[in-house]
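Batch manifest, entry 17 of 40.
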Amino acid sequence: MRILNNENKKKILSLLGLAHRARKIITGEEAVLETLRANQAKLVFVAGDASEKTLDNFNRKCFFYHVPVCFELQSDELAQALGKALCKIVAVTDQGFFQSIQEKLNGGEENEG
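Output type: structure tokens
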């Protein structure tokens, strides 16, 4: 996986904020797990500063459900983009937002599990 440059990171965070206002994302560990099980998640962001157990758990779950996962953003960046006090796990549920964000991640290449 390539490391995100600042410009792409800012665009992704902006898109996540827009998706949040459009109610096209799910936040929180349990809610994201339910979304994965229901095959509604298109892309999952897990904060790179989350615990090792959380990182490993979501890496395995996303691999199992064939959902791309990104560990490049930190919890403070996710929280600020969504206007929340704390946010470590986010799932994008809309295909349009997924495609827009995916273009910014790794030059459009899919990053699964």
